Amino acid sequence: MPLAFVIFARGDNKKGHVPNWIHYTAPYILRFSSALPPRESLWSSKSGIRVRKGSRSGRFWGVVSTNRSPNPVPSIVVRSRSTWCIPSARLIIASRATPPVSVATSLAPAPISARMRLIVLLALLGIAGAVHVDLPEPFADHCILADDQNKYDPAGQFDVPWFNIDLDKPASERWTEVAATYSLEIKALIGVVKGLILPIFPDAMQFVDTLFADMNDMMPQPYRDEMINIAEAADVPLGEIVMYNIFYEIFTVCTSIIAQDPRGHLIHARNLDFGLFMGWNGTSHEWEVSSVLRRMVINVNWIKDGKVLYVSNNFAGFIGAYNGLKKNKFSITANERFMAEGGFVGMIRWALGMEPDGKWMTWLTRETLEQAESYEDAKERLMNTPMLSPVYYILGGVNAWEGSIITRSLNGTDLMTTLDPDRENGWYVLQTNYDQNQDPLYLDDRRTPGNKCMQILGQDNVGFQGVYNVLSSKTNLNKLTTYTVLMDVVEGKFETHLQSCPGSCWPF
């Protein structure tokens, strides 16, 4: 049976220089069906990634993944003037000087580690959103408060069901009800993702099913057993559930707000936008992933010792937390931060064992909600815990002026923005996906419309209704928006409202 390799990292070999593997391009899946005597080794299974100079070759491709095999894993060799960049599956590496030949040989003493086989599967997620689609026309922002409109309906919260996740139960039993209830929706979402990946990489899902399942073995508890529980209850391959959970770490855009009324009472809210470039449906005028996700939004009571420890909302089958409330303690929302050393890089470093203590963005949110007992305690954890991806943590407390935006890099806090009585409009903070001291991308400026709308609202009108209407105004409301969550820590109120933006809306 042919062995499959994924060719991933490239660079030019100049004067013996070996390119850094992290400078990656799109992966290519190749098959090798026969063996020839080796020339110069391009890859070593012992170290995972080791690229060595080839015979007069000007460009190398690093081998970073294989499928499972009971036999010794082959080593790939470089041939003179070889062409390594072959953008198609089921092709053999071919020399431009000779007829196509296979260049696999069984030299390696042991199979490559699971960590190395997983890296390219992360890359597949990274390119899933890069599929060409016809984008909708862009449209201008508009604050509905300027027209005295009110879209807030408290009854809307009842469209989102509540489930209990009992932390006193074994992790292997916690998600059974949720996963069984939403099995069809989970399969539908994975089907959309497959539809984006498979036209480019026809063999991708066979790797997902096996290699992401391997990745689950590296997950810490209780997450490892929770994902197995979801896979079994939803009747979905484990690898696809792991992919589904990683999916959310790298593809979100959001708007979060903490606002304080004149009495010092805090309201914390956010829009979660998801699905950019993921299958534009020209008939329904929606992003396909966003459309499926709206049917999967749930609220969760997290139970400990028979009592509600905290509350959050989730997409069914997802075990992390983007936002949550711990009554009389604090509230958290997490917004993705885009930077060069982003979440994808952190995940690869984790897969290589280079960041064993790094936390996934939404898992740190969940762990902070479970373990922290105060605003200051939560703040310390969110500021200093090593991360796998940069993130903005928006944290609210119970006392006046306890509101902050924690701008995180992988190993520390780069910037802190807080509610401030001495700053103009310091009664609120608003965070999208750009640093507070930098201008947002002009194609994705949700900050300026949000700030304008907050100032139209005014501090006297801070409350669930007022902040909801800000988040229901374009472009903070857009084609990607799946829900708005409203939180009041002191009163313990937590409302999730499904959102969509029909008609003329900004695509992101």
TrEMBL record:
Ranges of residues in domain Acid ceramidase N-terminal: 159-217
A GO CC term assigned to this protein in UniProt: lysosome
Gene Ontology molecular function terms on file: N-acylsphingosine amidohydrolase activity
Keyword Glycoprotein: yes
EC class: hydrolase
Matching InterPro entries: Acid_ceramidase_N, CBAH/NAAA_C
Sorted UniProt keywords: Glycoprotein, Hydrolase, Lysosome, Signal, Zymogen
Gene3D superfamilies, sorted: Penicillin V Acylase, Chain A
Places the protein is found: Lysosome
Enzyme Commission number: 3.5.1.23
The name this protein goes by in its record: ceramidase
Organism name: Steinernema hermaphroditum
Domain Choloylglycine hydrolase/NAAA C-terminal per the UniProt entry, residue ranges: 254-398
Family: Belongs to the acid ceramidase family.
Pathways per UniProt: Lipid metabolism
